[in-house]
Amino acid sequence: MARAALQALALRLYGLLTRLATPLLRAKLRRRARAEAGYGEHVEERFGRYAAPAPAAASGPLVWLHAVSLGETRAAALLLPELRAALPGMQLLLTHGTATGRAAGAALLQPGDRQAWLPWDTAGATRRFLAHFRPNVGVLMETEVWPELAAACRARGVPLVLANARLNAKSHAGARRLAWLARPAYAGLAAVWAQTEADAARLRDLGAPVAGALGNLKFDVQPDAAQQQRGRAWRAAAGRPVLLLASAREGEEAMWLEVLTSKLPSAHMKHGLSAIEEIANQPVQWLVVPRHPQRFDEVERLCTAAGLSVARRSQWGASGAPPAADVWLGDSLGEMQAYCSAAHVALLGGSFAPLGGQNLIEIAACGCPAVMGPHTFNFTEAAELALAAGAALRVADMAAGVQAALALAQDTPRLQAMAGRAVQFTAAHRGAARATAQALATLLSGGPGRAPAQSPD
């Protein structure tokens, strides 16, 4: 009883803080909207207020799927076809937290589906959200467990599940420090399907009802043939090896440019010339794709300030043929598979700064070996599996990464072998999407899908 009272008190204090923070959130959205217009659209949805009427009744269940950002939306795109097959007549409510996620998610909607922002985690906003949409089930992708949202779903009887779930050691330690708040939220879920056994163990430790480790949905990616063809055409137009800085995060382009403007002690650098001078002699074509669209202009400025000419993808004209430039800047959304297909080797963004790494699976599926920095804690198992399969390399820092990519690009037999192993690596781990959809269908039918109840201790 004392434990329950403390947990209730913790939730009330948390609710007070989120309500007090609401004006700060509104101010943040206004600031973000100046860089990304999407943050200024449908703002009241963030607070559980909707201009459109509630969804009409459908022949199947209303499945609410939350994909906070672009990576989770891409994973949702892999899960949705299997969900629609397993749940005939289902209606989709797709929610997001970021503008890039919402923009990408619009392409996943079918007639009758709806899209909205996930509400800010206050008791009032979450209650209004559930009362308006009346979902039959909620599916949170990967990490998004919020205390008020979980409590509101429990109160309304909406089963809330965590799919493709991951929890790294750092996040696990943080959740343990906030155990009185985090544990009831995790324990109140209807089911958790983890990516790996290590994720499952950490989630169980927080009281989550883990029903299995089904693998990573992102392995189910099947590269789009049209995008692959487009990328191969860009590669041919380059007439030289294409090296990709993929999904680069803030600070990593500056690291990369610092390497390029330094004197590298590499056999691939002629007569002690800098890499900038080597680019002028056309040894490789660099392709840079920032992770976040709001940084496209910034990255262009960084490159031009370093003396590099830049050709932005958005300005390649109707034919899409890349012009001659030191750097191609990938400033389009939805073309990552084309960029990966154009590249001979990719430097993995997010892994050279201490940010945990971005998803390397899509890169590998396109037959592109990855060079990873030291920081891949967000995708630990995928990174280790890629290394073991010979589909990726690990280096200590950006300088070593650039040198490794240059060396691999010039070693054709090794490059071809790693490209083949990259495709085999992704193919060997597919199946999580179908398994997750079947598990959700079983749960909705009242069958097993929930692990035995666990103590919140």
Specify the structural class. alpha/beta
The average pLDDT score comes to 91
Write down how many β-strands occur, each being a DSSP E stretch of 2 or more residues: 14
Count of domains:
2
Question: Low-confidence spans: pLDDT under 50, at least 5 residues?
Answer: 264-277, 448-457
Distance between the termini: 13 Å
The helix fraction, in percent, is 40-55%
Query: Approximately how much beta-strand content do the residues carry?
Result: 5-15%
CATH class of the largest domain: Alpha Beta
CATH topology of the largest domain: Rossmann fold
- The gross shape turns out to be globular
Question: Which sheet architecture does the biggest sheet show?
Answer: 7 strands, parallel
Radius of gyration using CA atoms only: 23 Å
Strand order of the largest sheet: 3-2-1-4-5-6-7
Specify the CATH architecture of the largest domain: 3-Layer(aba) Sandwich
Q: Number of helical runs?
A: 19
CATH superfamily (homologous) name of the largest domain:
Glycogen Phosphorylase B
Q: Explain this structure to me?
A:
GO terms for molecular function: Kdo transferase activity. Pathway: Bacterial outer membrane biogenesis; LPS core biosynthesis. α3 crosses α19, α5 crosses α6 and α10 packs across α14. 46% of the residues lie in helices and 14% in strands. The chain has two domains: 192 residues, Rossmann fold; 203 residues, Glycogen Phosphorylase B (Rossmann fold). It is built from 19 helices and 14 strands. The chain is globular.
